[in-house]
Design a protein that fits this description.
The chain has 8 helices and no strands. The chain is mainly alpha-helical and 274 residues long. It has one domain. Its main location: membrane. Belongs to the oxidase-dependent Fe transporter (OFeT) (TC 9.A.10.1) family. It comes from Paractinoplanes deccanensis. It is a multi-pass membrane protein.
Length: 274
């Protein structure tokens, strides 16, 4: 559940912050009557995201073994793309997100409740669909269908609680540090998801080398051991991975983690001649 909890926490806090910005803006500008359309848009986005997650699960279950492996591989690779785009987008746009959302909501308020609901819906649905895809991809490989649901639910509930406390000033969190730490952990999660996608492609016969192992440390990581489960849940660690799986993990995880943790360049200030 570790990786799925982290996904729920990260994505849930982003959603909570977005909703908090919209609600606070309406309250501060005396537009309390527009809160209902905002909540309607948020609810519609939540229902659609949950329906999409259920559709992924049901649709995959109806496929043949080969097609199911291909479907899971594609979902895993799409999830890796989403994670990569999300963490770099958040690092670049976090400072301007509030101003952009308030600007959109201010324009929508002049057009009516439906426009306000649309702004809230669009602001939340992107995170909701990302959460659905990441949840589906991260939950692959587990034989217990309940634990992933518990993990994502706990992550979302933790995010809502943190967002609520932040909104009322009960706690203070350095969001830059929070998103940097969780972003780095999500890079490792994405590397594991990509590794699982490569394994699915090998299972489906698209890629070779299913029986060519990079190493085998099964004796040191017995099934059911807490440390083995923690590593498997967080970075999709397997004690006997194939060569291609290992290459995929390293080829993605190392360079992306270095790029993400690399300090962002600050624009140079050109002196004004007097």
């Amino acid at each position: 559940m570790t990786a799925i909890y982290l996904i729920g926490l990260r994505e849930g806090l982003e959603i909570t912050l977005v909703v908090s910005i919209l609600v606070a803006f309406l309250l501060k500008t005396g537009r309390r009557h527009l809160l209902r359309p905002v909540w309607a848009g948020v609810a519609a986005a939540a229902v659609l995201a949950a329906g999409f997650a259920a559709l992924l699960q049901v649709g995959a279950a109806r496929l043949s073994f080969t097609h199911q492996e291909l479907f899971e591989a594609i979902a895993s690779l799409v999830a890796v793309v989403f994670v990569t785009w999300m963490i770099f987008w958040m690092r670049r746009m976090a400072r301007h997100m509030g101003r952009e959302l308030r600007g959109r909501l201010d324009e929508a308020a002049g057009l009516g409740p439906f426009a306000v609901a649309s702004v809230a819906f669009l602001a939340v649905i992107r995170e909701g669909l990302e959460t659905s895809i990441l949840f589906y991809a991260a939950a692959q490989g587990t034989t217990d269908s309940v634990r992933p649901l518990i993990g994502v639910t706990l992550g979302l509930l933790t995010a809502v609680a943190l967002g609520w406390l932040l909104y009322f000033g009960a706690v203070r969190i350095n969001l830059t540090v929070f998103f940097t730490v969780t972003g780095a952990l999500l890079v490792l999660v994405a590397a594991g998801i990509g590794k699982y996608g490569v394994h699915d492609l090998q299972e489906a016969g698209v890629l070779p080398g299913l029986n060519t192992l990079a190493y085998d440390v099964s004796g040191s990581f017995p099934p059911g051991a807490w440390y083995a489960e923690l590593l498997r849940g967080l970075i999709n660690f397997t004690p006997a991975p194939t060569v291609l799986e290992t290459i995929a993990w390293l080829a993605y995880g190392i360079p992306v983690l270095i790029l993400f943790l690399k300090p962002a360049k600050t624009p140079a200030v050109t002196p004004v001649a007097s």
